[in-house]
């Protein structure tokens, strides 16, 4: 009887140990998967740094930023603008020439008003990514700023 009880205790300890190992493995696997996704997104946006593009290409970047924010469940305020967080929100700004100066728009305003007007006006305009910032906490892309150029 004592041998049978001892075998049950050893079996129970082994099952608990295996469950703990499985849980730790699952957490590490998800962490690495998330890290790979973050690196993929950061590398994707890094390719835009100092790159020239037309307004039509810029619309693709706008949609990508919106897609990333949606996947990360980033909340919007009452004006429909994404609310920055400390880890995975991305804000995108576009600096447009206005007379002798620039005016800066948040991409959500362009997307909320309908991208058709932007395409109609700026499809052949040239833009350059002039600034990329990162979240201090996570290293994820925090902001992208594209500026209309004369090129």
Summarize the structure.
The chain is an alpha+beta fold and 151 residues long. It has 4 helices and 5 strands; from the N terminus they run αβαββααββ. Strands 1-4-5-2-3 form a 5-stranded mixed sheet.
Describe this structure in words.
- By secondary structure, the chain is an alpha+beta fold.
- Helices cover 51% and strands 23% of the residues.
- The protein is built from four helices and five strands.
- It has helices spanning 2-46, 55-71, 107-113, 115-122, and strands spanning 52-54, 91-98, 101-106, 126-134, 141-149.
- The protein has a five-stranded mixed sheet.
- The radius of gyration is 24 Å and the shape is elongated.
- The termini are far apart.
- 18% of the residues are buried.
- The model has no long low-confidence stretch (mean pLDDT 89).
Radius of gyration using CA atoms only = 24 Å
Helix-strand sequence: HEHEEHHEE
Strand order of the largest sheet: 1-4-5-2-3
Largest sheet: 5 strands, mixed
- Mean of all residue-level pLDDT scores: 89
User: What's the N-to-C terminus distance?
Assistant: 88 Å
| Unreliable parts | none
Name the shape in a single word: elongated
Strand content: 15-25%
Q: Output the number of helix runs.
A: 4
Structural class: alpha+beta
């Amino acid at each position: 009887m004592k041998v049978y009880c001892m075998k049950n205790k050893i079996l129970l300890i082994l099952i608990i140990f295996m469950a703990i190992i499985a849980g730790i493995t699952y957490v590490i696997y998800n962490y690495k998967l998330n890290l790979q996704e973050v690196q993929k997104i950061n590398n994707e946006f890094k390719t835009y740094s100092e790159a020239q593009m037309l307004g039509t290409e810029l619309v693709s970047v706008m949609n990508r930023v919106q897609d990333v924010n949606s996947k990360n469940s980033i909340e919007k305020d009452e004006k429909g603008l994404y609310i920055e967080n400390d880890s995975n929100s991305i804000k995108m700004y576009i600096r447009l020439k206005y007379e002798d100066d620039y005016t800066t728009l948040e991409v959500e305003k362009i997307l909320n008003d309908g991208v058709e007007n932007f395409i109609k006006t700026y499809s052949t305009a040239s833009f350059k990514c002039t600034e990329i910032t990162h979240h201090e906490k996570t290293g994820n892309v925090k902001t992208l700023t594209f500026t209309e150029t004369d090129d």
